[in-house]
Each structure stands twice: as structure tokens, then as C-alpha cells.
Target: Nitrogenase-associated protein
Amino acid sequence: MPKITFYVKPGETSAFSYNKTLADKGYEIEIRDIDEEIWTSALLRPYFDTRPVAEWFDPKAPKILSGDIDPRKMNAQGALVAMSADFALIRTPLVNCAGRCAADLSDEEWPRFLARKSIPLHEPDVISEFWMHDE
Model:
């Protein structure tokens, strides 16, 4: 199985209960601090795929909470420049598996991501069996 790399903010590593599920399914898990990487617009862009720009941001980031940055008013280039300068703005975890990138995957999105399928923006009726069964 391939390696899955998570890029997380300090203190986030223990919050991912699915790490054990992925490891149990044979994936090698690597957790890296997002602030130890050099993020450019070109490196960040693939993680957000077709998500709306406002969803690229961490809603708990200090600059978002203070109102200094309004993600709803940002275009893609402005968002990437801002996130390159301040990793706290980035919605995490960023996930890379064999060159496939995503950010902050939901339980419903994981099976599609691992199967290398497109992740639809909204699929409210999907129930993920990936997390319910051991293989």
C-alpha cells in the first residue's frame, strides 16, 4: 500500500482517529508539521481541487476570526498568496497519497480519494462503509 502523508498544524496530530483505520488497512502513515514545509501557491493549489475558494481556509485561523481576512471575498490567487505567507490560514490536514492531494477530507470523501476517484462537492446521502468494517 502507498504512503499517506498528512500535513498538520502543531497539536493536530492526535485529532485524526482515521490514522489507525488507514494503518490497519495497510497504509503507511507519515505526519508532518505544515509549518516545517515551504508552501508556494503552486504547491498548495492541488490540495483544494474544485472546492470553492472560501473552503480552502481554516475558519478557526486568527486572521479569519478577527475579520482581517474574509475568505468569501478572496480569489484563488489571493488565497494562495495569503496561505503561502501564513500557514494558519490553511484548512488542514492536507493529505498526499501517491501524488494525489486533498484537504480536510470528510469520512465520506476518504473512500473516493483512496480509490483515486473525483470527490464531488456535495454528496449528503453517502454513508461510508470504509470506516465501519475491518478487512
Notes: The radius of gyration is 15 Å. Residues 3-114 form a domain with the Glutaredoxin fold (CATH 3.40.30.10). The longest strand covers residues 3-8.
